[in-house]
Each structure stands twice: as structure tokens, then as C-alpha cells.
Amino acid sequence: MKIYNSLSGIFFGLLLILYSCSSLNVSAGSKKKPDWVKQRPVSNEHYIGIGMANTYSDNYIKVAKNNALTDMVSEISVKLSGNSILKQFEDKEGFREEFESTTKMNIKDELEGYELIDSWEGDDTYWVYYQLSKEKYKRLKREKLNKAKDLAKDFYEKARSAENSADIHNALNYYVKAFDAVKPHLDEDLSIFTLEGRIDLGNGIYQNIQEIFSSLEFDPDQPEFHLKALSSNNPPVTAIVTYNKQGTIQPVANLPVVFSFPELQINESEIVSSN
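Below the sequence we write its predicted C-alpha cells.
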């Protein structure tokens, strides 16, 4: 019985020693530079982002994460859809570089679904390793695009309805809201089905706004107005605003008009709405 207790005590003691040594090895090993710091991993299934920051800098953990996400975005390819409204500007000088830079910034701001794989802190540097499933990224991107297109389609159809009723003020407002909905996705295929058939939202919004402005006419009630800048004794400036499309002329209400003196370099201006 005593021998058994002695052996048990020795065995338990050895376990404690081994556990202590193991713990010490893990702690000491944390200072060892991991493989992913020494050599960048390569993956076909994930986008990888590795970032580093000096530990003596303020918020170095946040800086390292930001650098890692920037690194991750650099792996995500940016290309224009063949149906994109931006395709027509592709050959403009400097457009592609500016487009890619702006798009990558937007991707970084909206990036989600990534996960922290590891972190390591050396003597004076801090490193982080993030990854994002490529399949998950595509799915989230597709969900955002479909949501944006559904919202833009609703505003687009309201704009078309208002335009057909010569409610130009609301038509323009709805077109702007439709554009804002798809603005982050102008490089993608924005094709949708409407009562008019299949259209590309980007091109449709742009062309319809252009058509509205080209169909607006301002007819002043006299050829010339003689005014003094900043004077309160000026006669009223009046004009009739009409919407002339396909031979149908209709007066336009609630259209904002700005009166200004750009040639005199006077910053004062006045905004009125047509009645």
C-alpha cells in the first residue's frame, strides 16, 4: 500500500513537472516568429491579408489590422462589367487607375466576413493574419448587389411614372435616389427587367436624366432684364418653365432654379421654384 502511494506520488509529480515544462515551452515559443510571418501563405480558397505595425506606435493593433485588410483587398481583382456605364469611360486617360483605386477603397470600407487566423508580437513589431473565403466574399457581394438593384428599380420605376406625368421635380429626385442605391456597384452588371423590358440601371438613369434636361425650356416674359447686383429694387425676373417631349408641352412646377452672378464673381445667389 505504501509502495503504491509512493509510486502514485512520483507519477503525479512527474505529470506536474511535464505540464510545467510544456507551459514554459508554449510561452517561450510565442516569441518564435511563425511561418506565415516569414513566408506569405498561398491559398486558392481564401483571400489573405497580413499586416504589421511597430509596437511603439499609437493603436498599433488597429494599425496592423488596417494594413492587413489593405493587403487583403490588393488580392481582390477589380474589373469592369461589359454592361457597366463606366465601360464607356474606360479608355479615358487615367480613368482605369483612378477607378481601380477608388473601387478598392470602397471594397475595404465595406469588407466583411473575414476572420482573424493568428497574431504575433515580436520585440518591436506586431503582426496579424486575416483571411476571407473567396466563395463567401462572392456570395456577400452578390447579395449586396441584388439588394441595391431591387431598391434602385423601385426608385427608377417611380421616376419613370413621375416623368410620364411631367412631375419633373419628383422624377429627378427618384432618379437621384436610384443612382445613390447602385452607386457602389457602377462597375458591375446592373441589368434588370422592367415594364419597358430589360435595361441597365446605370445607363438608364444617366440617359433619362439627360433627356429631362434637354427637354426643359425656359421662356422669359421679356428679352432682357436690367438688374443691379445685390439691389432690393430690381424688377422681378419671370420665365415660364415647360417640359417639351415628343411635341407635348407641359408646364413644370416645383423645379428649383438658381439665379446667380458668376461673371461678377459675387457669391450671392437665390434659389426659387417654378409655380
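The two ends are 108 Å apart (CA to CA).
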